[in-house]
Amino acid sequence: MNGIENVSRRRFLTGGIVAAGALVLGVHCYPKLAAGDELPDDTNVDHATLHPSVYLGINPDGTVWIVASRAEMGTTSRTTLPLVVADELDADWKRVRIEQAIGDKRYGDQNTDGSHSVRSFYNAMREAGATARFMLIEAAAQQWGVPATECETDLHVVVHRSTNRTAGYGELASTAAKFPIPRKEELKFKPKSAWRYIGKGAVSYDLEALVTGKATYGMDAHIDGMVYASVEHPPVLGGKVKSFDDKEALKVPGVQQTVAIDPFKPPPAFQPLGGVAVIADNTWAAFQGRKKLNIAWDNGPNENYNSEVYKNELRATSHNPCKVVRNIGDADAVFAKGGKAYEADYYVPLLAHAAMEPMVALADYKDGKVTIWAPTQNPQGAQDTVAKELGIPKEDVICHVTLLGGGFGRKSKPDYIAEAAVLSKKLGRPVKVVWTREDDIKFDYYNAVASMYLKAALGTNGKPTAWLQRSVFPPIPSIFDVNAVYGDAAHLQQGWTDIPYDLPNLRVENGPAKAHVRIGWLRAVANIYHGFAIQCFTDELAHAAGRDPLDYLLDLIGNPRTIDFKGVEYPNYGASVDAYPWETGRLRHVTELVAEKSGWGKRKHSKRTGVGIAVHRSFLTYVATVVEVEVNDQGQVRIPRVDVALDAGLVVNPEATRAQFEGAAVFGTSVARTGEITATKGVIDQSNFQDYPVARINEVPAQTNVYIVDSDAPPAGVGEPGVPPFIAAFCNAIFAAIGKRVRDLPITKLGLS
Amino acid sequence: MVQLKVNGADKSFNGDPGTPLLWYLRDVLRLNGSKFGCGIGLCGACTIHVNGQATRSCVTTMSNIAGKEVTTVEGLERNGLHPVQKAWMQINVPQCGYCQVGQIMQAVALLNSKKKPTDQEIDDAMAGNICRCGTYQRIRAAIKSAAERRHERD
To answer: N or C: which end of chain A has fewer CB within 10 A?
Structure first.
């Protein structure tokens, strides 16, 4: 069959990887491990008659297989990227089948984080579709004896208009497979006017499976002969087991044995935390057995970590000169003149992800190789970590990606997967590790606790003549380097070094903070605390000047210009500043748009009702949010309405984008209302939804209206950027309603709920 | 020995009567639609029906349900989709989807007791079901849409 020739050509072209193992992953079913030596790239796409790309294959029956190489955690990327392929292929979406990729470097980056799936893969998806379309047209032209230039496509067929002939993609597939794969320069892309799906979008490919319970998450992974494991981790980060007694645990019906897991060697990175695993016939027995363990711990170096003390330390650091990360003019010289000035401290505590599906992974180690099924944002990262833990080559780690029951950044860290792999190797049988909600809350990679100090010297109309801002937070690099105490450029850029205001004198600083828990990425990451501080401070300055917050904000943003980052380490979310310049005009535009749509200054507000505004660019997307709140006499806050305007460049899937911004308002509500993780003697105080509440239906915005700017700029992120401006706008609205200023999150600290 | 009905079929359970129904459904019967979210009845991801009432299966023990009828999402509708599932698709409610079966089971129970629930009644009935993705606005719309459609049919 032609496939053989094509497979070998593809391997040649991609530098291919060959490794033994199992597999095929359908999202709705889990095939058992095959006994033979099948290749890990043994997918329906690879088997297709025509498969000019790792992402795409077409069979003689007209079925188009598209690989989803990014993880699906609710952002619809598993649907949105294949839509781009299908559009450029001119395929009928109803005849497309999506296949989830295993972790495999031939797909390029698979870490589904940083809101960059569409941005980073839009061109690759278009090329895949255009390549196949090119070959199908060549095949039809040859068949008909006409020039390819006279042929075009129309929804799954190639057409020769003048002779009124058509041929379906399926019937052309085997002929097309004989043609050489065209070079990128030969490809012809569809004009925007001919797009079928890009910009129109579609609902999730899995929608019916999601509402019928047939969708398969990591929690649902199952293979015959597997045992269940629940792990008691050291309560303090860096602690270890001194001794343990499992006599009572082993008496629990269904419990088979216990297994000690070594503590990690610092830095923690994504290593298992260590502890004692209870192995059982079922999940419940494993949970019950764990409760009966009697373990003596050595709590290690973090046992004196207390959140309240730590907060004071961060604040004290922020009140003294720190490391300068951006400077314009001479702010100190202006402050020294002793004119009118305004200063404020802001604080955001540690935050947990609390994805609805707790961490879970199934691993099957056999003959020096391990096969994994896990809800992971980062299957190649899982391969790396597991390979290191087990001392086997990366290609001997096969990582299937299930659907994720939420991710929010937590499932980019494969510690829980490594735990399953280590246990499977020790036991010599498949092991499914199931974390409880308590494990999830207590052993997270938390969004950093942060203290921010801001000071402005005020001139005419209350406009700042000098601006100083310092942030202090334990940085994410601390999980990879125990000595890392300063923020790295990738996180200082997040709403801090890129403050977009037109200021004559600006100094941006960052202070040191040592981590005592694992710090990680959480939806919007450092933008959460940086955006909160800058946008609330702006609102404070507006009120101090007696000015309308919208007018004041626009005044600070200034005239449209491109921010010059000369002398500043500014990674721009990994994108080139030429393709994605920081344009204040676009920020201004969304600000004016949200003001208009929300009826800013026009709506009448009753007593104890107020609106707040905030803006923020993150993940290359410009967002402006207006939040309306009502606060009753008991301090209970209602959110009748949210308006959000965004410019994310080209938006492939507007429906999914609206959903992401609706969800971001809810996520922001959780952060602002109740989000707080604290530690006492190094032990996390919270454990489940009773003490780490997340927003419920009666606490969230009653209505979130999303306005998407029509833009031809290259695509930017949509999963995360809605969170930061929501939080600040919400707090600014509270001030407008009742005159109370939120400087420490969550709002419960002000007696609000 | 605990006797019960699951989706119309007779079942008997010989294990620890203190086992939560959720783990019997998932680990023994392999009915995976009902999800584990918190284990203490605070998130609603495990919601099923016991004798028609929305119930958290993670805190309902096997001894609690002796002689009762359990309905999970797998048994919600014999043919095709339940009207509430259809409304969920029409409004495009799910994001990650993990909580949605629990949300749907809760919403079905609500609509069985209230033909046209108000916003307040929807909030009251659904406040036990967490959606971390934040699909609440669409959940509310889908419940209203399902109620409306049924109203038209009646």
So the answer is: N
Q: What average pLDDT does range B56-83 have in this prediction?
A: 97
For residues A539 and A626, the answer to whether their CB atoms sit within 8 Å is no
Q: Which residue of B has its CA nearest to A285?
A: B19
Q: List, as one string, the DSSP characters of A706-747.
A: EEEPP--SPP---SSTTHHHHHHHHHHHHHHHHS----BSSG
- For the entire predicted model, the pTM comes to 0.95
Contact A604, A546 (CB under 8 A): no
Sheet containing strand B2-6, strands side by side? B9-13, B2-6, B69-71, B47-50, B53-56
What does the pLDDT read at residue A714?
98
Counted domains in chain A: 3
Closest CA to A495 of A564, A595, A570: A570
Contact check, Cβ <8 Å, A405/B43: no
Give the nearest partner residue to B98 out of A76, A217, A696, using CB atoms.
A217
- Residue A367: give its domain's CATH number: 3.30.365.10
Residues 48..67 of B with a Cβ closer than 8 Å to A: which? none
Residue (of A222, A455, A416, A232) closest to A335 by Cα position = A455
Is residue A110 domain-shared with residue A140, that is, in the same domain? Answer: yes
A289 and A311 both lie in a single domain: no
Sign of the four-CA dihedral A485, A489, A490, A492: positive
Which residues of chain A are under the pLDDT cut of 70?
1-41
Among A156, A174, A206, give the residue marking a domain's end: A206
A403–B36 CB contact, under 8 Å: no
- What pLDDT is recorded for position A606? 87
Q: Round to whole Å and give the CA distance between A132 and A138.
A: 10
- Does A253 contact chain B (CB < 8 Å)? yes
Report the CATH architecture of B2-75. Answer: Roll (3.10)
Note down the domain range covering A595: 307-352+445-750
CATH architecture of B83-153: Orthogonal Bundle (1.10)
* Residues A528, A677 within the same domain: yes
User: Å from B112 to nearest chain A CA?
Assistant: 18
Residues A622 and A683 in one domain: yes
The radius of gyration of chain B's CA atoms, rounded to the nearest angstrom, is 15
Which chain B residue's Cα is nearest to A640?
A: B137
A418 and A347 in a common domain: no
pLDDT, tens digit, 9 for 90 and up, residues A509-527: 999 999 999 999 999 999 9
| Residues A232 and A313 placed together within one structural domain of the fold | no
CA B92 – CA B84 distance, rounded (Å): 12
Residues of A in contact with B139 (CB under 8 A): 697
Residue A212 lies in a domain: no
